[in-house]
Every structure is written in C-alpha cells, then in structure tokens.
Amino acid sequence: MAMNFGDLYDYVDEQLSPDTVVLIEEDEEGTGRVFTSGQMRDSSNNLARQLIAMGGEPGDKVAIYSKNRAEYIQALIAVFKARLVHVNVNFRYGPQELQYLLENSDARFVVFESDYADNVNAIRPQLPLVKQFIEICDEDKPAFDWAASFNELSETGSGEKLQIERSPEDQIFLYTGGTTGMPKAAMWEQYNLWNMIGVNQKNPEMPSPQLPEELALRPEGGGANALVIMPLMHGAGLYTVINALGYGNTCVLLRTRSFDAGVALRCIEKHGIAAITIAGDAFAQPIIKAMDVAQGAFSLASLRFVISSAMIFSPHNKKALLKHCPEITIVDNMASSESSTSAYARSNSDSSLEDGAVKMQLAPNAKVFTKDLKEVQAGSGETGFLAISGTLPLGYYKDEQKTAETFITVDGLRYSIPGDWVELHADSSLTFLGRGNVCINSAGEKIYPDEIEATLKSHDLVDDCLVVGVPDERWGQAVTAVVQLAADRQVEADTLREHVRQFVAGYKVPKHVLYVDKVFRGANGKADYQATKALAEKELS
C-alpha cells in the first residue's frame, strides 16, 4: 500500500471538524480570507466532479496559472481527487512562454487568474487540446465568455466525496526551467513524492506514513501552522502545502503582489509560526532588511527553524539572520525539482560561519562523480558533479534525451544529476562551484559562479549579484560580476575585487564589475544567467 493525494485529502475531510480553519490568506492590510475544512472539502469535491463532467479523464493535465491564493489550493486538491495531473505555470510567463508550456504538457484544462486573462486569450486559438478554460475571478463573472467561472464550478454541487478508485501511481507534474533550455516537466508518482515530502514536521526522523489512517488526525487539526512564503508554482511552496494540509495543519498564504518580508514577519508573530521555508539569499536578504528596519518590533519567539531549499544561502546572510534570531536553527538543503536533498547544512548561533565559498555536507544517498562516471574520493582535490539516488521522478515528460542526460545509472543504481559541480573535501563537506552549464572558461581555467557570488555577497554593501563569463579576446571568457548594491550605497569596483581576492585565487577575481538596480531572478529566486549574460555582453560591447 502507498499514498495517493486524493485519498489523503478525503481522509483529512472526514477527520477534521468542518469548522476547523485550514487556510488563511494574509495581505498587506491584514484583511485576508479564512477557509474552514468544510469549505475546502465542498469546493474541492465540487470542482473535481465538474472537471470529470467536462470530460476530464484519469491522467489528463490541468495547468494552474495563478499567484498564491486559496483557489490555487482548491484547484490542486480537486485535481488530485479527480485523478488528474497538476501542471504548475510560472505566473510571470507571457503568451509565447505560456503557449509552449500548455502545448508541451498537453493541458486539457487551464485554470487561470483574471490578471492573466489577456495572455490566455492571445493564445487560445493555438490550443485545440484544451477542453475548458476556467477563470479565477475577483469580480462576479469571467472577463471573457469563453471561460467558465471557477467560483460557479466550485460552488455547484453537494460537496459530497467522490466515489472513485485511485492509484498511488497517479502523477503530479513539476515544470522546471533549470538554468538553460525550455521548461520541462518532472513526472512524479504521488506515492514517491510523498515519501520525499511527507515527513511529520514534529517528528522528522520518522518515515512518511504510507496510508492516510497512519496520520491519526484529530478533529481540531494538527496544531502546527505553516506559513507558505514560496510561490505555489515552485516546488518548495507546493510541497509545503501538500504536507501541511495532509497533516491537518493550517496553511497561511501570503496574498501579496510580490514577496513582502514585513507581511511575512507579521504572520510569523500573529500565527505562531515555528518553521518557514525560503529560497536562500533571494528571500533571506529582504527578511533581514525588514528586521533591521523593525528593530525588534516583531516578536519571533515561536520561530525555531528557517529551511532554505534550492538556492545558495551565503554565510554572510546566515550570520545576519542569526543575529536577529539567535534561537533558530537554519537548515540549508540543496535539492531540485528532480530529486530529494543532495547536500545539507545546519547552522545556529554557535556555528562558525566563514565568509566566502558555501560548504555543505554530502547527503547519505548522494555521491560525486567525474564526467566519466568515476566516483570522486573525498579530499582528492578533484571536482565533480553531484548525483542523488533514492526517491526520484520517472523522468521528464516527452523528453527522452533530457531524461537520459539527467537520470543516469551507475553500478545498477539510478541517480538524478541536479547539475551542481562541487569539490568534495576530506571531511565529506562540499564547496559548491556552480552549474556546469554556466561554468566560465577563462584562459583554460574553469571558474564556477557560485563561489564568486557567495564571496561578493559577503561584502556588507552587496545585496545580490550574479557572475557570468563574457567573450574576451585574451582570456576566452572574462569573469564578469553583475552587482546589486544596498540602497543608496556606492562602492568602487576595485574595492569589490580586493574583497574577492582575499578568499579565492586571483584568476577568479572579476575582470568586469557592472552595477544594476536589480539582478535577474525569477519569482522563486532562481538566477536568470541567460538574461544576465546578455546584459553584460551588451554593456561591454
């Protein structure tokens, strides 16, 4: 027996009191909506039944094109209950990018927020496979007559449980753009994904329950509020919701136009949040700045864990966060859409956090391999790429070549390759060097951006930065830093170069330093190296 998400949420519906609050939206004014277990049960059951009535068959894809809001979660649960497949959509996509993803996923239904109605309308004639467009409306009715109303569909019906037999092998898609190339969908079987994300936050040493009944939920819920900071279209945000609601806990959503660190801090205090998940420096820096401004105005006594996933969390920012919250533990996980944690670090106020390159420990199921698939020995000085075995997706949807490149078999064991190049030290710690496809080749030397970026961000006046290689007649590629400084601050390029030179070899020091108001990152904090490189080449041409 193994877990199916539709069965899991049916069980939650039956065990929780209908009046138990399971979802809270928080906005800038603190006037967000509140949803009970009964409301979520009825809306998701009704919507699931309507999707089936509109022709939805097991395995059909449902794309959700929306920012964080209650309707995203209602649609997600309905998709699970109807045995359909969730497809995440980056809400920053324009019409061309959106069309590619909807065609690539073979989407049969598109659930979209009113803000994006024009983008959907622009490509609608090119999407003959779509059976129904469903608009999440803030007004009374959809903007266009070709779309069905989400509210009407979720409110039509008795709210009764679907009598449907499901499979643990029902799938969920997680589209990932990576650092290059077009987005591709990691295909996860639900039982396998649950084995990775379904750990009880109160007892993380225990394995994920294999049957809903093993959760032994109480009518009043799990009693642990979860603050969802990351976008739901990003794995970290989606996994937080799946786990929290599965354990009967209350999810607190930030319903803001973009990440608002002040609102997040207010929610931690207001709802007694014990743990938050962020994406490294991209989210940590705004939180630290908001704390600096607040000067202790927020009580964060409930906060015990700050979990970072998928992005580099520099020692400099860890130290700054621990200065404000000395009682917390920072859990730094290096994971990806295609795998579980491949490397990790735990930091607290007693930890020695040196500036410079980021070091983490190799996870038990991870290894480091050379290009010719020989295992790198700790302390050898040889660099290699991370590979993680264990809980893995089936591969990429409709992309056998990328699947073969990312999922390899060594000595009979299947591994996922996130793309991170590292140096494995004698104590099994890792120095992250960067992604192989953004490696800079300067005068024959391989230089990885992560190492230089972490060093630059340890400078007090650097808020964020990305490092790329630009064509150079002498060096082949010249290391170029694109730097975002702290507000209203200035610092000479030579000062930053000397700072970097303290920690790394001279050939890694940026030959060019460019300044921008904001570095190129997605809503999930991931670096856009392609746009950064284009900007650098234009500025230096």
Automatic annotation (TrEMBL):
<dbReference type="InterPro" id="IPR000873">
    <property type="entry name" value="AMP-dep_synth/lig_dom"/>
</dbReference>
<dbReference type="InterPro" id="IPR042099">
    <property type="entry name" value="ANL_N_sf"/>
</dbReference>
<dbReference type="InterPro" id="IPR020845">
    <property type="entry name" value="AMP-binding_CS"/>
</dbReference>
<dbReference type="Pfam" id="PF13193">
    <property type="entry name" value="AMP-binding_C"/>
</dbReference>
<dbReference type="InterPro" id="IPR025110">
    <property type="entry name" value="AMP-bd_C"/>
</dbReference>
<feature type="domain" description="AMP-binding enzyme C-terminal">
    <location>
        <begin position="451"/>
        <end position="526"/>
    </location>
</feature>
<feature type="domain" description="AMP-dependent synthetase/ligase">
    <location>
        <begin position="17"/>
        <end position="391"/>
    </location>
</feature>
<dbReference type="InterPro" id="IPR045851">
    <property type="entry name" value="AMP-bd_C_sf"/>
</dbReference>
<keyword id="KW-0436">Ligase</keyword>
<comment type="similarity">
    <text>Belongs to the ATP-dependent AMP-binding enzyme family.</text>
</comment>
<protein>
    <submittedName>
        <fullName>Acyl-CoA synthetase</fullName>
    </submittedName>
</protein>
<dbReference type="Pfam" id="PF00501">
    <property type="entry name" value="AMP-binding"/>
</dbReference>
